From TrEMBL:
Gene3D superfamilies: Kinesin motor domain. It holds the Pfam family Kinesin. It comes from Galbula dea. Residues 5-356 form the Kinesin motor domain. Keywords: ATP-binding, Cytoplasm, Cytoskeleton, Microtubule, Motor protein, Nucleotide-binding. ATP binds at G87, Q88, T89, G90, S91, G92, K93, T94. Its main location: cytoplasm. This is Kinesin-like protein. GO terms for cellular component: microtubule; microtubule associated complex.
Amino acid sequence: GRETHLRVVLRVRPLTCTETQRGDKQVVHSLGDGTVHVSTARHDATFGFTAVFNAGASQEAVFEGSGVRQLVELAIDGFSCTIFAFGQTGSGKTYTLMGPLAQSETQPVAPGLLGLMQRSFACLLEQSRRRGSDLALSASYLEIYNEQVRDLLSPEPLSSLPLRWSKTRGFYVENQLSIEFESLEAIVSLLLQGPTLTGSQRRQTSAHALNKHSSRSHALLTIHIRNRAVSIRFGEVTSSSPRIHCTCPSKQGTLCFVDLAGSERVKETGSSGQLSIEANNINRSLLALGHCISLLAKPRGKRTHIPYRDSKLTRLLARSLGGSGITLMVACISPSSRCLSETLSTLHYASRAQRVTIRP
């Protein structure tokens, strides 16, 4: 119930081979202690975050250093926890969350390259065994593509699902499928590398000038965690010693991973036709998200109406941003001089997000 700030960490990806061959300069430098410096002939700025992971940081270092392990434990304890990745297209958001794209049962990814999702799944099941908890686990997975909400786990062809609101649940997706699982292998097969088309493989992607595997939708994977109620009975029923009956209430928590589509400039990506329509919808929803974050960053007494209804994305993130959940933002940027404008935009966006306060 105590007020706390939204936690923001920054990840700087390495220069790509194309950027190096093109002669791009590295303009982003980590100064340590959660500080990053952007230095060019026309810009000189310093930004501070909870943690900064430079190009040499491993996937494990990001998992441990950003506090995701603690979020998993809090989700088991009944809190609503959200981890979302934000940044320019091609800045490493999907890699950070999921690891390399080429994953299959025959060619599994190297353990060191596993993303935050797989590491969280393993940590969740490990904590369950260590605590001796009787956990019921289930998963739901959806994408927002061109302002249409689609269920990535449904066996039916992808179609738009209605987004509703209620006083008790807030905004929710009607008829969304939720699938139970009991092992790490089961959820990884379901979401990432199954023998048939998995949730992640059904997500809308395309190639353009800045990214060969650009996500064209926002994806939200939610793990629902329920501690089943435990009843304890002992003692003989007599006049002097009645039976003692204790029922412990169940706890229900969630762990949500949000892989936002990357912000992009149509001129830079060379997009046209359908790609241009997708880019406009992506940027429009990210602009709505940025507007909500700017308003939420103001002191509570000076906040005006928060326009969550401006997009499907902000409706689904309303509870994570301004409600009673615990939220971690992973801002991903490129260090390339050619991406300077988008990098500065992401850094300012992430700096504003740090001022958002929540009450878990």
